[in-house]
Structures are given as C-alpha cells and as structure tokens.
C-alpha cells in the first residue's frame, strides 16, 4: 500500500494504491493528515484507481478525512472507484458524506 | 455433507497478518473457480473478521487467530474465524451497523459487511474466552468436471 500526494493550488490529491485494510490505513492516514493539516486544502481528492482491495477500514479512512476537512470547511471527493470497491462504498453510504466522481486522468483531460 | 476439501491456518494477531489471512482463504477457495466478485466478497468478509480479532478480541495484546475453511462440491464455502480474546458481552449491539467500541477511526461496519457480503453469518462469544464467527457462501458452480482436472467442452 502506498499513497502519493499531489498539491495543486488549494487542491490536494491523494493517489492511493494497493490494498487498504486496518494495517495499511494507518500510514495512509498519517501521510494525508500531516500534509493536509499544513496546507489546509479546500478540496481533498482521494483517487482509488489503483486500489486492489478495501475493507471497512477504508471506509473509516474516508470518514475520518471528511471530519478533518470539515475543520477548515474543505471537502472530500472520491474519484475513480474500481467496480469491486463500489459495493462497500455504497453499503457505507459514503455518497452522503462526500461526492463520488468518475474522473478522467490529467493527461487524458488535455487531449 | 462431507466437504470436498478443508484447510486450517492460525497466526499471530499482528495487523500485518490481515492481508495474509484473507489471501490464504482466497488461495484455498480458488480451486472452486469463483468469479472475481465472489472472491472479492469473501476476501472482504474474512478481512473484517480477522481485523475484529486484532482490533477488539486481542486489543493491546497479541493472541492467535484461527481460520478454518471448508469447501463442498455444491459450491458452498464455510469459513470459521475464531479467537481466544476478550469476547463480546452483547452480540446484538456489536452487530449494529456503525456501533464500535474502538477509537482508532473504525467505521463500525465489520459485521454489516460480513452479513451483506456472505449468505449467512453466525457469531458466538463467551466474554473472557473468545469469539467464533462462522460464515457461509455458496458460489455459482461451473461444471464439476473442471474440479477433476478435465476441461469442459
């Protein structure tokens, strides 16, 4: 599991990859929170395109980041959900907490 | 009904073993030729049960997590995940969606996920002695001949 952070103006994107479970969620959380608390972005986009597996620990991770972003009135966007992760995301009702978008990749957007 | 095959595995309740637990079950049931969706459902349910052992049953301690898995030629899969940890006082309350006793950003959805991703879920627990979660799921069978190593025409 790894997370790569990209900051563009007031928007932060966390590109998640690998498997998100209770074990890996901690390092992802720490990496995002450390950077986000400094920058206080208006939008935090969690990009799930390279996530292979996620259990309810990932739901907790999203819920926790929503809570954090609310402190400075920012919001969370979930992008590029793979089909096999959609089921747990809809079971948890995360769409009521943040927006879920099918986003094209940056390089595709240019074309 | 006699199982077609059975396996047991036990490991320490370290969080780094969560991936091992679900992968061991996934590797074992692969011989039933499940679909990607079925495999993903089962891996997620196992991950929830194993995480419960680590986060709740053996909170602040290290114990042993026991997994037993049986497969049947009907496509039925039975997975038992057991611990000898603290046990659950009120199972009905623990199974309520969003209920959690942990503070570590837990969504409280573990049992809800097991319930909706598997066909059947049974939880038994004795405070101070441990918890046993038994889950069943029947996967779509393709011709049994595949199991015997022949190719289906």
Count of discrete structural domains of chain A = 1
The total count of helices of chain B amounts to 4
First-residue to last-residue Cα separation of chain A:
30 Å
- Overall geometry of chain A comes to globular
Q: Quote the beta fraction of chain A.
A: 25-35%
H-E string of chain A: EEHEHEHEH
The CATH topology of chain A, please? Transcription Regulator spoIIAA
Q: In percent, how much strand structure appears in the residues of chain B? A: 25-35%
- Describe the largest sheet of chain A: 5 strands, mixed
Could you say which structural class the secondary elements and strand pairing of chain B correspond to? alpha+beta
| CATH level-four homologous superfamily name of chain B | Histidine kinase-like ATPase, C-terminal domain
Quick one: which chains have the greatest interface? Answer: A-B, 21 and 25 residues
CATH architecture label name of chain A: 2-Layer Sandwich
CATH topology of chain B: Heat Shock Protein 90
Cα radius of gyration of chain A in angstroms: 13 Å
CATH class of chain A: Alpha Beta
Distance N terminus to C terminus of chain B?
29 Å
Decide which structural class fits the backbone of chain A.
alpha/beta
């Amino acid at each position: 599991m790894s997370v790569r952070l990209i900051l563009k103006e007031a928007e932060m994107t966390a590109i998640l990859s690998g498997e998100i479970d209770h074990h890996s969620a901690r390092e992802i959380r720490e990496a995002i929170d450390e950077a986000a608390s400094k920058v206080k972005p208006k939008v935090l986009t969690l990009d799930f395109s390279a996530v292979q597996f996620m259990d309810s620990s990932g739901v907790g991770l999203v819920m926790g980041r929503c809570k954090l972003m609310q402190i400075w009135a920012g919001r969370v966007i979930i992008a590029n959900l793979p089909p096999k992760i959609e089921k747990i995301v809809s079971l948890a009702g995360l769409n009521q907490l943040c927006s879920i978008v099918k986003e094209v990749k940056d390089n595709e957007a240019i074309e | 009904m006699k199982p077609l095959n059975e396996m047991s595995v036990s490991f320490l309740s370290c969080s780094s073993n969560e991936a091992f637990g679900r992968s061991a079950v996934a590797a074992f049931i692969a011989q039933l030729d499940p679909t990607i969706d079925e495999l993903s459902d089962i891996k997620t349910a196992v991950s929830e049960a194993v995480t419960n052992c680590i986060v709740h049953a053996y909170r602040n301690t290290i114990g042993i997590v026991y997994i037993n898995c049986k497969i049947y030629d009907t496509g039925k899969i039975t997975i038992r995940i057991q611990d000898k940890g603290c046990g659950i006082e009120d199972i009905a309350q623990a199974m309520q969606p969003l209920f959690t006793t942990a503070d570590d950003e837990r969504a409280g959805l573990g049992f809800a996920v097991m319930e909706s991703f598997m066909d059947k879920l049974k939880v038994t627990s004795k405070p101070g002695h441990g918890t046993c979660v038994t889950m069943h799921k029947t996967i779509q069978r393709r011709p049994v001949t595949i199991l015997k190593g022949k190719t289906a025409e």
